[in-house]
Amino acid sequence: MRSIVVIPRRRGFTLIELLVVIAIIAVLIALLLPAVQAAREAARRAQCTNNLKQIGLAAMNYESSQGCYPPGAISIYDPTGKTSGWNSNFFTWAVLILPQIEGNTTYNALNTNMGVGGGGPLATTDTGEAFTAYLGVPKVFICPSDADNDNGTRPWAGTYSTGYPNPLGQSPAWNPPTSPSTGQPLQVVPVISYAMSWGDNCAGCGLCDCLPWETPGATGTLPAGQTRLGWPGYWGTRNANKAGMTGTLRGFADYSTMQIATIASVTDGTSNSILVGETVPIQDANNAFWTSTGSASGTTVPLGFNTNTYPANLPACNGAWQAATAPLGCRYASSAKGFKSYHPGGSNMLFADGSVHFLKNSINLITYNALGSRAGGEVVSSDTY
């Protein structure tokens, strides 16, 4: 008799079971992604902190060899207020510390008699050394959390570009170096994620009359109990306004009148004085790595203030280089010269002793300004920031 073999029937998943499994996986992914993103941002923030520590060591080495902190930018100071400063190479503090930060190849390629993107008689015409150095910016100057720059550059042209402004009308205009291979100016500009601090000098008009956070006038006696926010010296320069020369650098970076800071001048204590902080290139039209206008920011603008909230292509904003009428949310406004970052809640700040602290955007503005000054005489407790 033939035997009959019965093969057991395999039971598959029903459609409902598959949908339940897919739903569970989707929920797990939804729970996991924020954690992954947070871990990645923590790693980027740690790298940014390391960048600032390296910059701090370089600044300390520069101070040891030169007897002062690196100046905000190299300039010719003319006490009559003429434009000779704009005719220097205007290399920034970041350029000056390249040898201390393993950027010797780039530094040695520079022609110090000719600015990279300079103005007036020093307008860039060099198609050799300048072009070689132009894109050789070390990545230590770029925060990895900034996804709005292309490998450390911004476009040369356009309302969201980063160019070298030509506020004094020199001829020829400021242009990027010319490529030896194409004979055409390069259409990108190297940018920087870190700016040296000019402290609590005015960021707006020379007498602090343009920004709402600064005490108008910047001179005279205030009512009892009121603290002055903003001191004479436009962008840390000697300029009390654009005609007078009575300002004094309160921080470390004078971008055009060649004031310098030494360790002895930091009477508030190096551990209580901000040296360098984070910036966001797309929110600041003056953010070129090589030229002085991108070298510094101040503490009278609240930490983390967003200057990309006003459309840059509108007439009131586009090309309104620090004009008093520029909207506060405009990347061309004076309010753009504050510290900020893409890190949630605050920014990494390098202090003059080489330490790096993460300051919250909610920091009290009086405390923040006190940390900006190096010799203001303010008493700041470490538990206030």
Structural class: alpha+beta
Could you give the count of β-strands? 7
Rg over alpha carbons: 25 Å
Estimate the strand proportion. Answer: 5-15%
Question: TL;DR?
Answer:
The chain is built from five helices and seven strands.
Describe the fold and architecture.
The chain has helices at residues 15-66, 93-96, 104-108, 129-134, 365-372; strands spanning 153-155, 188-190, 194-199, 274-278, 296-298, 346-351, 356-360. It is an alpha+beta fold and 385 residues long. The chain has one domain. The strands form 2 sheets. A 5-stranded mixed β-sheet has the order 5-3-4-6-7. A two-stranded antiparallel sheet has the order 1-2. The protein is globular. The model is unreliable at 166-172 (pLDDT under 50).
Throw out a few tags for this protein:
single chain; alpha+beta; two-stranded antiparallel ribbon; 8% strand; 7 strands; five-stranded mixed sheet; 385 residues
Topology at a glance:
Layout: H1 15-66, H2 93-96, H3 104-108, H4 129-134, E1 153-155, E2 188-190, E3 194-199, E4 274-278, E5 296-298, E6 346-351, E7 356-360, H5 365-372
Parallel strand pairs: 3-5
Antiparallel strand pairs: 1-2, 3-4, 4-6, 6-7
